[in-house]
Amino acid sequence: MEELTVAVTDSGxxxxxxxxxxxxxxxxxxxxxxxxxxFVNALFDDAVWYNDLPDDAARAxxxxxxxxxxERRCRPDAILIAxxxxxxxxxxxxxxxxxxRPADSIVPAGVELVDHALAAQPEATAILFATPGTIAAGAxxxxxxxxxxxxxxxxxxxxxxxxxxxxxxxxGPQAAERIGEFVAAALAQLxxxxxxxxxxLNCTHYGYAGPLWAEAFxxxxxxxxxxxxxxxxxxxxxxxxxxxxxxxxxxxxxxVVSKTPLPDDVRASLGRLLHAVSPATAAALRDCTLDRDLFxxxx
Length: 299
What we know:
Helices cover 46% and strands 17% of the residues.
């Protein structure tokens, strides 16, 4: 394979962490001579999120329009859905049912991590942190139960609008306060519990604030609680599928495209974290392409 194009999409900017990880790891992979990582923000309106839509049918219709735009604009060899919200209803889209190359979603990666962690600690309880829509959908819980995990070992904790707080200041005091509140709310579902815990971050934004989760559990009396972030597993999917090494190195280009404007402070705050992983991704975010005509859908 001389050239490889991978599109990463999210209903926001959490998936940029996946794009950055993939870009960094592709550079040393040698699986292609040149690789392009295209991050496409699938958010369709400045003020309306997917969870604000009336039902999954409407969400699937909007996401289908975004996926069609990704196929048309990027001609990708693979599409990574770096968003738990979008992953939950992706199976309802036309793309999932008819595409020559169905997209890979992050939900199975998160489920696998939790399943393995609970198998390693038979006395542990897993807390799944996610957006209200993802928790309500219950896809992670159903998949874990189908794998043989007892339902009582799974606690779901919705974290309304936490992703917005994290975008603006991932390691700041407001994010720390909100994460502490959600950890406390999750523990309130386990009154008197003193056994081992496993925390699973089932929104791609949450990993940006990784240290704050560990600090919140320590402050609540559960130091050393493993915090599972499935984001890196999506890069693993690409490297495993398109390997092995064929070239000494891979020349990697990154682009960021969005239908909605990306606030300057958000680009700056996330850019600082992304730069440590992939300077090219941070630069692409800084110079992102705003395309108001990226896709259209009639609701």
